[in-house]
Amino acid sequence: MSIASQGAVRHHSVIIIGGGQAGLSISWYLKQAGVDHLVLEKHQVGHAWRNERWDTFCLVTPNWQCNLPGYPYRGNDPFGFMKKDEIVEYLDGFVASFQPPVREGVSVNKLWREDGLWRITASDGAYSADQVVVAVGGYHIPVVPRAAERLPADIVQIHSSQYLNPQSLPEGEVLVVGTGQSGCQIAEDLHLAGRRVHLGVGDAPRVARTYRGKDVVEWLDKMKYYDLPVDKHPLGTGVREKTNHYVTGRDGGRDIDLRKFALEGMQLYGKFESLEGEVAHFGGGVKGYLDEADAVSESIKDSIDRFIDANGIEAPTEARYVPVWQPPSDTARALDLRASAISAVVWCIGFRTDFSWINEPIFDGRGYPGHERGVTAAPGLYFLGLPWQYTWGSGRFSGIDRDARYLFDHISALRAGATSSTESTPSALSQAA
């Protein structure tokens, strides 16, 4: 279908695709500057926070790190961790503070460049724009292994994005697959509710909640870790593929220790491998996964120790972590779902990106967009909110302001016909911010 056949084409200087914290942040800068723009949101502003988080979900980073443009956290618990409803309230407050031009319930089906303009076909018709910001994050399609198709029909299976609470699952034991942040926190949620949990462990690292008198996030902030650009990271852009460290902000914040859970009755396995009949099979190496997760946590403590010593900071000493449980040498590698009364499986193995609707040759062989700090080689096309787009905070409440401000400068420069680098000629609004 040609764009002309879809009726009137609505034009804006800038169109933002996605109404989460990323899209709203760049909208804030554009509105402050009086730039004509529109935010297209497939569902409702902040949809993922409202509808893809479980009931006890809370931030794993302290509230003081929440710093959306012109709207820092103003609550009375800066060192606490906002719960799901509080996060939504914070985001709604940000929206109310500047009233962005948002059109909700609009799905973008195709984006391409033609005759010097960006063209969009959407569920409510056609649009065009001089510049486009794709702010849909990097978590699009829930990953569920093909083996899931062979699960018995009477066993409920859901992705982590669909999990609500223990009561939403049928009575019986639960298999949780994956130990990233979601997997560990959902396993804990079920465990604390008295459910018998079987957990397929992976190679996700962990981090301590506190060390030597401060939250580890506060130490890392003082160490300027959150200012480290991706190109200076020891792993380079490879860090974008790494699983986040597991920890929790629940009940004021604490470590997540899978060894402690095992002592209390949670059954740990290696990585999920296959399903044959009613038997799930797992790889070995539980001890190795736990040891490596602990080693990462301890290495972070080492870096904090060095920082404290180098800067002459007075801080209490703290004994190092001692493993409270070791897996037996004959750790089970098979789970008979029927014999173990498994009633539900929660897949916590992440998401994959889907930018197939963007018809522009900027993607690598894995479908990841080529960009420098969100600026692509295609004139006027930007990405915002990707994990480690520039720093650890990219896409998070802590770092999205910096990324949005940077893209605003590029948008402004292109609008003005500027050819110089925005790093050397920052906009007045950027300087003021």
UniProtKB/TrEMBL annotation:
Keyword annotations: Oxidoreductase
A Pfam family of this chain: Pyr_redox_3
InterPro entries per UniProt: Auxin_biosynth/cation_transpt, CHP04046_FMN-dependent, FAD/NAD-bd_sf
Record protein name field: Flavoprotein involved in K+ transport
Species per Swiss-Prot/TrEMBL record: Herbaspirillum frisingense
